[in-house]
Each structure stands twice: as structure tokens, then as C-alpha cells.
Design goal:
This protein has about 210 residues and is mainly α. Helix content is about 75%, strand content about 0%. About 35% of the residues are buried.
Length: about 210
């Protein structure tokens, strides 16, 4: 958990004044794209999950982490959110690569699948990820395998897994989630807006695919 929090904190600095130079660097090779996918998935997963819990708990938010059973639930939710966010940003990146490169959508999709497989292999099965992690990772792989890359548009339509994951897995009483669901889904979609703008501005699709062999 601490490793992911530190990674998320480092990504957050890229959006603050000290990280302005970092935001301008091109995503121009496979390592840079893999880093982008992994860290942005972590960023959105953490900010949306913890942000929602903080809003719901108010001043009691720090006390949640003194309840061992609740911390277990938070960790399970965190990893489900990360998988869903990785799924969404990978699909978006694959569509953008295909649109912008002469190599085409099939090559872009194959590259994104390979990068995501590498991320999942490096991550392994975290000790605090819960019994649903393997199924969630399988769902990411299956979604990418089945993707109709040419049919995807450069908009928020592909960001479906992460709003659903927060609704399903946030450790919140179901009655409250029913009341919050629309706001929760919209909050996740909103978090992706800056990430999409960032990737659009920084992605050099020809360079990435040119270095993918």
C-alpha cells in the first residue's frame, strides 16, 4: 500500500508547479508509455477512492485507518480500482496510438496488450489485494484482447471500468452508495480529463511504435 501511495504522490507532483517540466516531456518510447499507464492508473485510483472516503467520513477520515477490518476493505478496493483504471487508460492509449500512427490500430493494440501484461507481471499478486485480484487482472487482459480498436473515439466513452469499480468496491454502506452513485461515477470521469489532455499533448505515436520491436 505504501509503495502505491508513494508512486501516486510522485505523479501528483507532476501536476503541481514543481512538475511543469515533467508534464512537457514527450511519451516517445515504450518505457515512457508503460510508466504513464501504470502511474496514471495509480493516480486516478487513489485520488478517487480516498477522495470519496474522505468526503463521506469528514473529520473521521483518519480514524478509518485505525480499524483493521476497514483497512483490509480499503486495500481490496484500492487494487480493484487500480486494475479498472489500468484497463481504461490502456484502452484509451491504444486507440490514440492507432489513430496517430501509420502502423495502424492492430499494431497499437498489440503493443498496449504487451505493456499491460508487463505491468501486471511486475505487480504480481499483492499481499493485500484480496481474493478478487486475479479475476480483475483477467478481466483487464480479456477486455484488451477483445477490443475493437478502430471503433474507439478520442473521448471519455472508453472510461467505463473505473467508475463502475468505485461504485462496486468502495467500502461504503450500500444505501449511501445508491444516493452517491451518479456523483461518484462523474467524479471518476472528471479525474480522467487531465490525464487525457496530458497524453494527447505528450504522445509521439510514431516514435513509440517505432521503438516497440
Amino acid at each position: 500500500m505504501l509503495m502505491r501511495l508513494r508512486k501516486g504522490a510522485s505523479v501528483l507532483t507532476e501536476y503541481l508547479g514543481a512538475g511543469a517540466k515533467g508534464r512537457s516531456r514527450a511519451v516517445a518510447d515504450v518505457d515512457a508509455l508503460s510508466h504513464f499507464l501504470d502511474t496514471r492508473a495509480s493516480l486516478v485510483a487513489q485520488t478517487t477512492l480516498y477522495g470519496y472516503l474522505r468526503t463521506r467520513a469528514g473529520t473521521r477520515f483518519p480514524l478509518l485507518f485505525e480499524d483493521d477490518a476497514f483497512v483490509v476493505s480499503i486495500n481490496h478496493a484500492k487494487w480493484q480500482m487500480w486494475l479498472a483504471c489500468l484497463s481504461d487508460i490502456a484502452v484509451y492509449a491504444g486507440a490514440l496510438l492507432g489513430d496517430r500512427s501509420r502502423a495502424g490500430h492492430a499494431a497499437a493494440g498489440a503493443l498496449v496488450q504487451r505493456l499491460v501484461e508487463g505491468i501486471l507481471e511486475r505487480t504480481g499478486t499483492p499481499a493485500d489485494s484480496g481474493p478478487l485480484f486475479a479475476a480483475g487482472a483477467g478481466a483487464v487482459r480479456e477486455r484488451l484482447r477483445r477490443c475493437d480498436w478502430p471503433a474507439l473515439a478520442d473521448d471519455e466513452a472508453v472510461f467505463t471500468a473505473s467508475p463502475e469499480a468505485l461504485v462496486l468496491h468502495a467500502p461504503i454502506v450500500r444505501e449511501l452508495m445508491v444516493l452517491d452513485e451518479e456523483i461518484v461515477r462523474n467524479s471518476v470521469r472528471f479525474r480522467w480529463q487531465e490525464v487525457r489532455r496530458d497524453l494527447r499533448a505528450r504522445l509521439d505515436a510514431e516514435a513509440v511504435l517505432g521503438h516497440s520491436n
